[in-house]
Amino acid sequence: MSHIDQCRIIELPKHSDPRGNLSVIESGIHVPFDLKRVYYLYDVPGGSSRAGHGHIELQQLFVAMSGSFDVIVDDGTRRKKFSLNRSYYGLYVPGMMWREVENFSSGGVCLVMASTLYDPKDYYHDYDEFVAATRQPQK
């Protein structure tokens, strides 16, 4: 099982010069998993929330590409909130973690890198079922 302490901010390389900044994200180097999927959330009304589900295996890295938002992670026992507002910081979230993305600023863009292809069987949509699963002994 994952524990909330495994969720952490990863500082991404930032290369600055007079033309602007460039950050690089390489699978297995800057991200602790092989990238299988990338998606992004945008045009989310200011103050709105997304997610509100858990994953069994999926690992993710959340990056605020523009604006800001909060990611709340929950391992079935503890909750922790991370505020993201810099494009050179990513939040790593391991599997068996509930996540909520909320408090989007106007114009906020949330980039998410994922360790697996989309699989509806990897989701928990009911929080009580997720918590019950975290209490079961590992196989």
Automatic annotation (TrEMBL):
Instruction: Please give the organism.
Output: Duganella zoogloeoides
Q: Which InterPro entries match?
A: QdtA_cupin_dom, RmlC-like_jellyroll, RmlC_Cupin_sf
The record ties this protein, via SUPFAM superfamilies, to: RmlC-like cupins (SSF51182)
Q: Which residues form the Sugar 3,4-ketoisomerase QdtA cupin domain?
A: 6-133
* Family matches, as Gene3D superfamilies: Jelly Rolls
Q: Write down what this protein is called.
A: FdtA/QdtA family cupin domain-containing protein
